[in-house]
Specification:
Blueprint (H helix, E strand, L loop, with lengths): L5 E6 L2 E6 L7 E3 L2 H15 L2 E5 L5 E6 L10
Parallel strand pairs: 1-4
Antiparallel strand pairs: 1-2, 2-3, 4-5
Length: 74
């Protein structure tokens, strides 16, 4: 299964969780905190990244739940 990053984005009904490249939201939540919890769980399951967008659409936080090298190269 390919890694699909999970995005928490503003939605007309609150906040949505969308997989990268998806046209429809995977889920819609009343608060950003609820959407973050759902996105985190999905990112953990997919071993991918979670990106949290602000109301303006810009990424304000990102967390990785994949197999990042430690220590990072470079």
């Amino acid at each position: 299964m390919p890694k699909k990053n999970q995005h928490v984005v503003p939605h007309s009904n609150g906040w949505a969780v969308k997989s990268a490249g998806a046209t429809k939201a995977a889920s819609v939540h009343a608060t950003q905190a609820e959407a973050v919890r759902a996105a985190r769980q999905s990112a953990i399951e997919h071993k991918s990244e979670m990106l949290i967008h602000g109301r303006n659409g810009q990424i304000r936080e990102r967390n990785s739940y994949g197999s990042d090298p430690y220590p990072p190269k470079g």
